[in-house]
Amino acid sequence: MRSGIDQSAGDPTVRPQDDLFGHVNGTWIKQTEMPADRGRYGSFDQLREKAEEHVRDIITQVAEGSPEAGTVARKVGDLYSSFMDEARIEDLGATPLASFLEAVDAVSTPSEVMAALGRFLRAGVDGLVHPIVNTDDRDSSRYVVYLEQAGIGLPDEAYYRDPQHAAIRSAYPGHVTRMLTLTGVYAGDAASAAADRVVDLETRIAASHWDQVANRDAVKTYTLVDRDGLAELTPGVDWDAYLAAAHAPAGAFDQVIARQPDHLRSMAAALAEVDIATWQDWLRWRVVHALAPYLADAVVAENFDFYGRTLSGVPQIRDRWKRGVGLVEDALGEAVGQLYVEKHFPPRAKERMVELVANLVEAFRRDFEGLEWMGVETRREALAKLGSFTPKIGYPDRWRDYSSLEVDAADLVGNVARASAFEIDRNLAKLGGPVDRDEWFMTPQTVNAYYNPGLNEIVFPAAILQPPFFDVDADDAVNYGGIGGVIGHEIGHGFDDQGSQYDKDGNLRNWWSDTDRANFDERSQRLIAQFDALESRDAPGHKVNGALTVGENIGDLGGLTIGHAAYRISTEGSDAPVIDGLTGDQRFFFGWAQVWCGMAREAEAVRLLAIDPHAPMDLRANAARNLTEFHEAFDVQPGDGMWVPEDERVRIF
């Protein structure tokens, strides 16, 4: 049996005892040129490129078949064609924005600002809040609307205040000016003056935004209010005008969860205090910003110059066909996914994954039963939650119905707006109905995985179930280190610092004893401190935010620990063979490290450190240093780069 390890990627001059990531991936890093259209590139991105090509082939084959009007196949082909018709897009220029800008011109009161935001929401133009329909964190048997902070054009509130982002902040008004000029919204000095007013208003909005660490706190971001409570929180805000313009069903906001109440209070004050002309400037900018990717080349180029080159250091925009595929994925993802699964996901891959998941769950069960720091009652609840996990593998059992979505091959911006309205309507229609436990929140062709605490489910789309994550024909050790670690990671999210606050039914409820929670928090704080001291090789001098990344780091640590235990379960009764000169345990850790093979441009690495809850790729691979099993597998000794004294190794599960 082949090992499933890419020997050509490794650097034999680097010892795994010193740098597991560098040993397994070092030659690939040295020899691979970063694609010009990427800020970060690695194992995930290579698989995404492969899936992207598969999807393009599916789209073009569907279109070539001249499907009948109104069919999903025709919609897929027409949507892609509308994006690829560059001549028509150039001819139209900024005219697709006309109806939106006319609506802004008519705004004369704060209530009309809210009405415009409701209308624009349906077209995919984000406003002051972003409404999200999801299961209620404290009552998972029902859907409710969450109100998420929004309203800014930079990636995060820190960009408006943190000295390390000063260069980006300085470049931003010029970008807004150029975009408003290119689209004909303003001319000459008027564009610059409007841009200054927009940035000033966004700076005010950002001042009330919660930071990334606060936003991942499941308890802090849960404030349930009824309509009276929302009115009290946002005095003077005309939610009726907003909901009517958004075509929301009656009662949609009868109860909402304010994720960041401070932002809602500040939003209400800003609507009352900021002059209408400035709100009109801001609304025009929101329209231009949201729809820029679908306009003429000059607008697309300026949009990329700021958000690609300046923010992430990416020198080249992605090929047009790739961006077209992305649009189809966003609007008709499951329609394409159904065809993708038929072509690229063999049934035996799903069968093997079922076995892997079962062994990971069993490994977690054994771990919980023997966990010395966890008390009897907490252990009972943890095992009940583990036993209630729902794994979803490959693709949904029921495909989404796109029959009501209208697509016109000659109307790109209209297609974008209608696709957004379709999603808004689809989600708002959930309110008051039964929870759909069969719904997927990723398409089968997505190279990723997720844990959903409200449904207590772990989900693995088909596209991630291929090398280096999963190879149905490869050695068990590498599969358990790769996809097994990912499975363990997602299960681990059910028991990380936030996921552990949800019970087996997906409800936010404290099921921990005070002592057990203190034991868990102590270990989590040690992991935070460990990562606070680290910096990625891609962004030297910039430290990781351990508090921002702690949930994902717990997931990684749990994935590694339990993935290894599951591998041992799979080999019970037999000795693992030596393959490619490596023991089974060594191959396991190689399998983990090659999953995180990758690199990033420095600007992108810095940006991600500010907003991404995941640690950099090299640090995720080298999290193995916390495992005694890793030290034993490679005979790591004091003085080696990966050595961690036994009493400093963090082990939660």
TrEMBL record:
GO terms for biological process: protein processing. Residues 16-396 form the Peptidase M13 N-terminal domain. Pfam families: Peptidase_M13, Peptidase_M13_N. It comes from the Bacteria. The keyword Membrane does not apply. Residues 1-20 are annotated as: Disordered. Keywords: Hydrolase, Metal-binding, Metalloprotease, Protease, Zinc. Its cofactor is Zn(2+). GO terms for molecular function: metal ion binding; metalloendopeptidase activity. Residues 448-647 form the Peptidase M13 C-terminal domain. One of its GO terms (cellular component) is plasma membrane. The keyword Ubl conjugation does not apply. Belongs to the peptidase M13 family. This is Putative zinc metalloprotease. It comes from Knoellia locipacati.
